[in-house]
Amino acid sequence: MENKENYQLLKKRLQKELLEALESGGEWSDEDIMGQIDTLIVSASKNVYLSGYKKLMMKQELFNSVRRLDLLQELVDDKEITEIMVNGAGDIFYEKYGHICRWDKSFESNEKLEDVIQQIVAGANRQVNEASPIVDARLADGSRVNVVLEPVALNGPILTIRKFPEQPMSMERLIRQGALTEDAAAFLEKLVRAKYNIFISGGTGTGKTTLLNALMGYVPKDERVITIEDSAELQIHNITNLVKLEARNATADGEHQVTIRDLIKSAMRMRPDRIIVGEVRGAESVDMIQAMSSGHDGSISTGHSGSPEEMLSRLETMVLMGTDIPLVAIRKQIASAIDIIVQLERLRDKSRRVTEITEVVDCENGEIRLNPLFIFKENSEVSSGNMVREETSYAFDEASVLGKLIHSGNTLIHRKKLEAAAVRLEGGL
Fold first, then answer.
1. In the sheet that 99-102 helps form, which strands lie side by side, from edge to edge?
2. What is the pLDDT of residues 365-420, one digit of tens each?
3. Do 399 and 368 fall within a single domain?
4. What is the tens place of the pLDDT at every residue in 324-371?
5. What mean pLDDT is predicted for residues 208-214?
6. Residue 375: which H helix or E strand, with range?
């Protein structure tokens, strides 16, 4: 029975017997299920040899198949894996230490994978089916989930899980990992305390949410903070007066949808000190910009773009989706609402870095004017096949990018919020 094929055949048979037992009726606790699995394995062991290790493995896998995420649970439980990508039943990939690897395990069928997907979606009170084949959800531990089903997905059900650390990332850890410098972190801390409106920009997987979580550590504990997200993933533990709002998709009949726009409008009536929008993707940017420019200072949000200039252009486009006011007026509103843009990038060595911190100055002659304050400067490359980065413990396959986020030499132009908060900048800023 040590043969892998035979092991899988036995597992499939016991899984069928377990499901039949569970469907026989009654409420089954986790302990009851574990007891039933033990009974099935003991019975099977009378005819087939299983080592002690195989028995334990079989027990856990059977339990995972009915109460957890089946074979994916192994990847979910691995704290060093940050992303799980399932491209149909036979193609499973994961990201570990910034590198994507193919897994040697697979689902027995697309139907089994879909069962797991439906379990995830139901647990998040969401629906996904052929009529509505795309959904965002989350696991119980806060991990972000995206699902795309057939007929949109041509190679079978697509499942992507973005995992987050059990403890939110602190700014100190980001500094140790080289994401930004102590000077830049100290500068951002003062801006957060002085309630500057900050927009975090970057591509997919650059660490926008991670940085947002870290910045929230600078928010005074006595403030009332409202977070608004498509799928809740922010980990904020230092704020006691915290309201967490999550958007809701429409039901199968197209009703009961609650959008980000709805939540922003509602949040403005909740007496917030700060409004935190996890990510803006569309017309809700109108309401976010209006909130930032109407006295709700200290707001923070994120968006997808490759540069601060591109982020501003994307914001213009998104605002145009929700209003028909002239472009010049939109640019003036954006320039008055957003104080600082923090740009993140994922470099070729897979490291995530803050590459620019820039001030949004004003709108002059119909163009938004920027004032770069910190810029990432790359020095050179060094072969570092045995280089170990703190808290990651992995060797780079490629040359490590050497560089530093340095002060541009420019000074912050808009200082009223700093003065109002009695915060002083140092280091030529």
1. 99-102, 92-96, 81-87, 158-162, 144-148, 134-138
2. 999 999 999 999 988 644 443 333 444 433 444 567 888 899 999 999 999 999 99
3. yes
4. 889 999 999 999 999 999 999 999 888 899 999 999 999 999 999 999
5. 93
6. strand 367-382
Cβ atoms 227, 244 nearer than 8 A: yes
Cβ partners under 8 Å of residue 254, min gap 6: none
Is the per-residue pLDDT at 11 higher than 70? yes
| Closest-CA residue to 232 (of 94, 129, 139) | 139
Q: How far is the C-alpha of 322 from the C-alpha of 97, rounded, in Å?
A: 39
- Residues 6 or more apart from 364 whose CB is under 8 A from it? none
Please give the residue range of the domain that contains residue 81.
73-163
Cα dihedral across residues 210, 213, 217, 218: positive or negative:
positive
Same domain, 378 and 236: yes
Token digits for 290?
A: 């209006």
Q: What are 313's two structure tokens?
A: 């252009």
Q: Which residue has the higher pLDDT, 398 or 271?
A: 271
- What is the reported pTM? 0.77
Sheet of 198-202: strand order equals: 241-246, 224-229, 274-277, 300-304, 198-202, 340-346, 352-364, 367-382, 400-407
Backbone angles phi, psi at 353, to 5 degrees: -130, 150
CATH of the domain at 324: 3.40.50.300
Omega cis (within 30) before 372: no
Clarify whether residues 409 and 346 are in a common domain.
yes
